[in-house]
Amino acid sequence: MITILVNYRLIYESIYNFCHDENDVLALTLDVDGNTAYEAFLDKIAETLNKQWEDQQECADVSKDDRHVLRLAAVLHVFYDQLQKRLSSAPASPPQALVKKETLEQAIQLNRYFAEQRKILDQVD
User: Is a pLDDT exceeding 50 seen at residue 82?
Assistant: First the structure.
């Protein structure tokens, strides 16, 4: 258990170091399939909002989901990369620039989970 905690701390430190390098900016891009999946995700958001508008329903809180999903995909991409490097004893270095479709899909699922949790918490208030 202690070893795992130490490894996560090392992962965090390596991520912090290359993300705060003044000479190099970490820029990530969705791969072609990921971009297609992201566009489909955006279309679903638009469909949801349009349907709610037509039905004169209260609009769901999905207006920021597009940004949340991109942020989550970036976090997952960097974390998976650094975890893999640590587990294989590879030297710490920035991840490759392309974020895979699978990572984006995981971010979408994670965003859905957080949205469901938000709904549950809203009922408590």
Answer: yes
